[in-house]
Amino acid sequence: MTLLQTDGLTKQFGGLVAVDDVSFEVDSGETRAVIGPNGAGKSTLINCITGALEPTAGTVEFDGQNITNLEPHETVQAGVSKSFQTASIFPSMSVRENVEIAALAAEHGSFQLNFLKRLSGFSAVHDTADQMLGAVDLLDSAGAEAGSLPYGDKRRLEIAIALASEPDLLLMDEPTAGMSPDETADTVDLVEALQEDLGLTILIVEHDMEIIFRIADRILVLNRGQVIADGTPEEVQQSEQVQEAYLGGVEL
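Structure for Probable branched-chain amino acid transport ATP-binding protein LivG, as requested:
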């Protein structure tokens, strides 16, 4: 079943067409990847999907609903959540409080500034936070100050924050950026486990081709804002256009 679909999605910044008539779909339960050289329009595409940017033209449908003009928090409430390229956390708060904030925001859209004083009254929020911290193997660090975590664990926390809204679709923007090889391997294992254990549908932007060819069911390739390939990892690897865009024609 198609969960997410874009039709003719376009985003212009003055005379620059960053996303140019992109139509693609994400099926429920799959790991879908978006790749492309620097400046290909990957992040702009994701931002148009999440509501962070307003498309110049085209539509975004999620689970049969037109979400093209929704605000970012409304997109989250519809079932789409995003983890960012750099960890976006509250460093002076505890690991658990970071996830609880996201769970509250997803449920209510906004909250009063004194809401932390009232967290003890939200047992469902506590339960959700612990479930998501368990999913990313951070439950043992729930009481620690978020800023004290190693970099790889901060990225895990950021994924837990994205999961706190209990999304049907998780968008991941460069989840291994800045990681060591060991941290990268752990994150790839985590992505695979999230899909298997939570039944998530994942749309991932990632620069590491080896990772993408390992975890993706299908890959969308952008170059200069346009789709140049869309298919299985094997089909993408064999695409002459993809080889030319990345390596000047050298086979991937």
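DSSP finds nine helices and ten strands in the chain.
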